[in-house]
Amino acid sequence: MTTPNTDSNALNFIEEIIEDDLQTAKYQGRVHTRFPPEPNGYLHIGHAKSICLNFGLAQKYSGLSNLRYDDTNPATEDVEFVNSIKDDIHWLGFDWDDREYYASDYYEILYQKAVELIKMGKAYVDHSTSEELAAQKGTPTEPGTPSLYRERSVEENLSLFEGMVKGQFDEGTCTLRAKIDLASPNMHMRDPVIYRIKKAPHHRTGTHWSAYPMYDFAHGICDSLEGITHSICTLEFEVHRPLYDWFLITLGMYKPQQIEFARLNLTYTIISKRNLKMLVQEGFVTGWDDPRMPTISGMRRRGYTPASIREFAKRVGVARRENMIDVSLLEFCVREDMNRIAQRVMVVTDPLKLVITNYPDDQTEYLDTENNPEDPEAGNRQIPFSKELYIEQDDFMEDPPKKYFRLAPGAEVRLKSAYIIRCDEAVKDEAGNITELRCTYFPDSKSGNDTSGKKVKGTLHWVSAKYAIPVELRIYDRLFTLPDLSEAEGDIRNYINPNSLVVIPHALAEPSLAAATPNMRYQFIRKGYYCLDADSSPQKLVFNQTVGLKDSWAKQASKE
Length: 560
Known about the structure:
The protein is an alpha/beta fold. The chain has 3 domains: 31-261, Rossmann fold; 273-341 and 471-559, CATH 2.40.240.10; 345-467, CATH 2.40.240.10. Helices cover 26% and strands 22% of the residues. A 7-stranded mixed sheet has the order 10-23-24-25-21-22-11, covered by helices on one side. Strand 24 and strand 25 (541-547) form a beta hairpin. The radius of gyration is 31 Å and the shape is elongated.
């Protein structure tokens, strides 16, 4: 497990490269990055790290950052994903101004660049099958073998390529390949495919094109056309860098610098789009924005804040090699931000009735309580107090152990922001279950004006039986049971946590939560941090637990 470097003054290796480039005026003092998502799914926490890195570098060095969609595969792309990506980036707190681009913006230029390669004798149309193409690549220890079509004439290749883009061939019947080096130790340099046929309509260009560029071909050319200085990719693209450079050098184009960093790997978390799509399609989650999903939309719905995710990205840092980050670090960042901003409220999840026998039957008293002791500007609110209340079932024990500071027969506790009470009697039903507590309150022990002289060690949260409102709570746990899913034996479905969602359908909340809005964050006192869920309605309030008050998993691990 990697321990992130939290020294805010230390430069990461990408910043060191950029500062060296600025010193030598390599790009005329410019810093221009880009974030290039594929619009074939929702963004996840790994993308969030990349967004923070690319846009953050541009901000730090007074540069620019583009949003460019890698929309080169119409079979998997959708406007829904395009819009969700924009929403997620804006929600994280970043903007690209007027620099929203698409690979499809450059289709004509990319086509012309492919034609240039053909005219140079550097590209050819190949009718080999996918199996034949794979065999022609060779192995890491054996060179590739030339295709039967490798020595076609320029004229024939030009005619065939034009037929490809005009839809004269079926999918899978031919490709355009770059002619590079079949003996290269880098498999990506062994005549890679740069165009393939796709007959699906494109979300922006419709059916105008029938052949589309591969990412490796489009990526560098788009970077060059946009004047990108530092093309930042995840580590799996390191072996693609020679190809990135080859296209630009061969075509005589301006060449940005591709820099690779380690992708984010989180414990108990999977972020491959293929597997996330499986979770959605097979009903293991309710959708891309299910609060158990590591998607930005899922974390947003769960109540994570943009500030907490940006802080997490900062703490994780930028590494040169793959590492595994404990997901509890992300939850710590969320918890730390929530502690600053969340309003403290009282919610009882497993109600036990408590009757104050010496409190007037019809009296309601409104008591002041602080909204957030961490924020002096948060102010106070009033909560109703009456004769009949509810506390948590587990806040009472008939025969408590030593150092039990909650309620028991004869014991005294303080009710949060209210009075000190003493338990006089526990009422039971015929089966021996405790159904009601009967207590005495001390009028001179009012919180903020306590003259009783009593000292108690326990403080309990509560709600008024008369004014409490019903709410549904959704408690989330890890979606997977295995810390490192790369070590999964067999199907990862076998490691899905069956208890990743627990629903408490009938909790009782103080009445202030009737005015809850989706952008508000709450600490349910002694329970955790919560937010209003998208499923809520005035008739049914639903709250998601964003994160617990403490890292219960770390505590569990320390015991094992």
